[in-house]
Design goal:
The chain has 277 residues and is of the alpha/beta class. It has a single domain, classed as Purple Acid Phosphatase, chain A, domain 2, CATH 3.60.21.10. The protein is built from six helices and 13 strands. The model has no long low-confidence stretch (mean pLDDT 95).
């Protein structure tokens, strides 16, 4: 039976006090970190995503898993929000979270995309180690984590890469996404290649999808949500100051009508408690 489902997650930022974290984890020094109330809430979303939403939307069929980058938080931008700046610890946290998923009965293969160097090391070296530990399917030169992935799902072409332009205004949130589609179409046309049916990006931690009609159905460009809470850097931008984190992942599925479509599962974290006068 051919694979019809691809599940995409990203931006778990393991090792950050605001990133995805299990109920408890022993660090390299032997100490234990207790996750915050909001981290426990994100953990419950993670469990619901894999335990209930994924089986529902895949109809309990096998699926491919793609982590689209920034699995760990790293040591970046002089931040002090890490649980630990020991990269070995951060990789171990991410591995503990992902191993039950990629080794599960429904997972038919795992691919890993390298994220931002500030988070995952120069040339994405920390994510290469993580992907190798998890047995991610290597590329043609043997790397287990890659900068981009071209995947053909029953004839439909999908392109995965982590980065995409960001904006501080909700009015322009779709602009870079649509531009990403146009650039892909133009480059494919220049060289006589098939353009991707679906373009998958991450990095922003905010879900959005642009869909346009084509000869064979629809062209889709989308950005995944993440699994990280609101960081200090978010408060620098107008779009981030008043908005709340978007937590979740996406499904890409080859449907019964021989077309490809996507679905997103996105949770919104509640606002801080209001002060009532």
């Amino acid at each position: 039976m051919p694979i019809r489902n691809v599940i995409v997650i990203s931006d778990s930022h393991c090792g950050c006090q605001l990133g995805l974290f299990p109920p408890s984890f022993k660090l390299d020094s032997g100490g234990l970190y207790k996750p915050s109330v909001l981290q426990r809430k994100v953990w419950s979303m993670w469990e619901h995503f894999w335990g209930e939403w994924v089986p529902l939307v895949t109809k309990k069929e096998p699926y491919i898993v793609v982590h689209n980058g920034d699995a760990i938080d790293g040591k970046h931008h002089d931040t002090v929000t890490q649980i630990t700046q020991n990269i070995t610890d951060q990789v171990a946290i991410a591995e503990a979270l992902l191993r039950p998923i990629v080794k599960g009965n429904q997972c038919a293969g795992y691919y890993h995309i390298r994220g931002t160097e500030a988070h995952v090391g120069k040339s994405g070296q920390a994510e290469e180690q993580l992907a190798k530990n998890l047995g991610a399917i290597p590329d043609e030169i043997g790397n287990h984590a890659r900068w981009e992935l071209w995947m053909r799902l029953n004839g439909n072409l999908i392109h995965f890469s982590h980065h995409i332009g960001c904006t501080g205004s909700a009015s322009y949130e779709s602009t870079a996404v649509y531009k990403e589609m146009i650039e892909a179409y133009v480059d494919a046309s220049r060289w006589g290649k098939q353009p991707p049916n679906v373009i998958v990006r991450s990095h922003r931690h905010r879900a959005i999808k642009v869909e346009v009609p084509t000869e064979t159905g629809y062209g889709i460009a989308l950005v995944t949500p993440g699994f990280q809470l609101k960081t200090p850097n978010t408060h620098r931008f107008a779009l981030g100051r008043s908005s709340m984190p978007q937590i979740g992942g996406i499904l890409i599925r080859h449907g019964d009508e021989d077309t490809i479509f996507t679905r997103s599962k996105v949770w919104n974290i509640e606002r801080p408690r209001e002060v009532v006068l």
